[in-house]
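# nightly structure sweep
# worker-07 picked up a monomer target from the shared queue
# config: single-sequence mode, recycle default, output format = structure tokens
# input follows
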Amino acid sequence: SKVTLLAVEPSLGSHRGGTRVELVGDMFVDSSALFCRFGHALVPAEYLSPQRVACVAPPHSPGTVKLQVSTNGADFTAATAFTFVMAAEVESVSPVWGPAGTVVHLVGTGFPNASSLRCHFGSQWVEATLVAAELIRCAVPALDSTAELRSGGSPRRVRVEVSVDGAEMTS
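# output follows
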């Protein structure tokens, strides 16, 4: 029976590496010879189930490579695409304060048009919308108990960061 690869989540990651990638398919087996291959770079894979394995993308120059899986270290699945992108950088945030639901615009570089694009407010992730190549928007989430207003009603400052892959964030 042949291992099949159906999808990869996310399908892109930072050129610096470190993106945890989950591969969805069929007939995966738990083996010490379970590997992912990003272009020519072979990395160990983690068995999650017969339909899912995970691996961590290695550093790679920006661009699209073939991503494949092997359960024996020799035979590889048909390829799917994985794209390495430059890390995002935020240059400005506007407005700089507001309650939950406030739409925040972030100007910067390296924002891909991808479903994995996220904003990180304090400890919470929210989906980001790409408006233009250098502009994204995110809505401030409802704050969790650690980020509620302090006594006296003064707002709490939270760090806003962007991630293109759910792992690496801007600074």
